[in-house]
C-alpha cells in the first residue's frame, strides 16, 4: 500500500508541549475548530541516503518509521522551505513488508515494490555501486489530536517530544515540536485556530525541520553534500586560454552532475531542463575552445551529444505538456478543455516511456564511462596545445567575432517567407554566440553582460519557434496511422491532436512576427559597445 499527496502543515517549536496539550483539551465544545485526543504513540525514524547524497540532491528526505505497535513505513518527503509559516511538501509513503530489522532497513527499502522503492532504486542507480546508509535516528513520543471543523475532519495536531540519539542538535539532545497538518491552510477557521494556539502557548516558528536537526546533530553540513571538486572554476583577469576553457568546463560539468538525482527521481521538470542546458554549454565550450584543449576532448563532445539527445526527448515532452495543459486551463477558443486534456494525457504516457529510456541511459556502462572519463579529463588534464598558454584576452575577441559574423550572416538572410530550417540554423548560431558570451563575460564586465541580454532574448525567441515546429511534427506523428499493430487513438483524441497542432502553428507564426525587432536589438548599440571593449582589453 502506498499514498502520494501534498502535505500542508505549520511547524512550531515549544518550551512545554504539556501546556499545548492543556490548551487543546480546554477548548470549549462550541469552538469553530475542535481538537479531540486520539492516541499517544512512540515511533523511531531512521533517515537514510546514499553515500553521495543522491536522495537529498534530488530534493527529498528518505525516512523509515518503525512504530512500537508494529509495522514500518518508508516515506519520501520533499524539502520545501516554509512560505508564510506553512510548509507544503510532496510526500510519498509505502508500507514495508513485515517489520525490518534495524540492520536491514536499507535493503527493505530497496526491495519495496511500490512508489518509494521504485524511486529510491531510480535515484541510486541500477548498477549496484551505491548503497543506502542510515544517517541518524529520531526517537519520538507523539500525542495525536484530530481537528474537526463543522463536524468534518480538518487535520491533525501532533505534539512531539523528539530525541536524537548520538547527537546534540538541541539542549539535552531533544526538541519539542508542534506540527499542525491540515487539508486547507487557507480556511479562515483553521488560520484563526492556529493563530490563537500560537499566541496562547508561546510557540515559535520551527528553526529547523527534524531532518535538518538530525543532520546538524551528526555534524553533517552542506559543504559535505556539495558534490565532487573538479578543480578551480575561477576566471582571473590574466587567465590563459587553457585556464578559461577548463574553468568553464568544470563549472558546467558539475552543474550537469548535480541535476542527475532529480532527473532520476523523475518529477522535476527544472532538473531535466538544467541538466540538458549544462550538456549544451559543455558541448558549446568544447567547440569554442577546441584549439586550447587536448585532442580527446572531441571524442567526449560526441559522447555528450549522445547523452543530450536522451535528455532532449524528455525535455520536449515537458515543454509540450506544460503548453497543452495551459490551453486546457484557459478554455475557450472553440476547443473544449477535454480535448486538450486528452492530448496532455497522451503526452504524459509518452513522457513516462521517455523517462524509462533516460533511466536506462543513466544506468548504462556508456554513461558511466563518460562521467569517469570526463572527471579524469578535468582533474588531470593531458598535455595542452601550445595555444592554451596564450592570454584569454588575446584569443577571446576573435572567437566572439567569428560567432557573431556567423549569426549575422544567417540572420540577415531571414525574411517572413524563409523556411523553418533557415530559422533553425540561425537559432543554433545564436545559441553558440550566447554561450560564448557567457563564457567570457567575466573578462569584459558590463558591456558583455548587456550584449548577452540581447542574445538571450534572440535565442529564446528562436528557441520557442523551434519548439513549435517540433511540437507540430510530434503531434501529427501521434495521429498518423501506424505500420505495426499499435492502436490508433480514438477519433476525439485525433481531432484534439490536430487542434493542438494548429494552435502551435499559430503560436509559431506569432513568434516570427517578433523576429525583426528582437534581431535589431541584437545588432544595436550594446554590440557596438562590446566590440570596443574587446579591442580595448585585448
How would you describe this structure in keywords?
538 residues, alpha+beta, Hypothetical Protein Pfu-838710-001, CHAD domain, 3 domains, eight-stranded antiparallel barrel, 16 helices, 55% helix, globular
Can you give a write-up of this model?
The N and C termini lie far apart (66 Å). With 538 residues, the protein is α+β, with helices and mostly antiparallel strands. Helix 7 packs antiparallel against helix 9 (269-288) and helix 9 (269-288) packs antiparallel against helix 14. The protein has three domains: 2-222, Hypothetical Protein Pfu-838710-001 (Beta Barrel), CATH 2.40.320; 239-376, CHAD domain (Alpha solenoid); 391-538, CHAD domain (Alpha solenoid), CATH 1.40.20. Strands 1-5-4-3-2-6-7-8 form an eight-stranded antiparallel β-barrel, surrounded by five helices. The chain contains 16 helices and nine strands. 55% of the residues lie in helices and 18% in strands. Strand 4 and strand 5 (86-96) form a beta hairpin. The chain has helices at residues 17-25, 54-57, 105-111, 115-124, 188-200, 210-217, 241-258, 260-265, 269-288, 297-330, 337-362, 365-379, 392-412, 420-479, 491-522, 525-536; strands at 2-13, 33-50, 60-67, 72-78, 86-96, 132-149, 152-163, 174-182, 204-205.
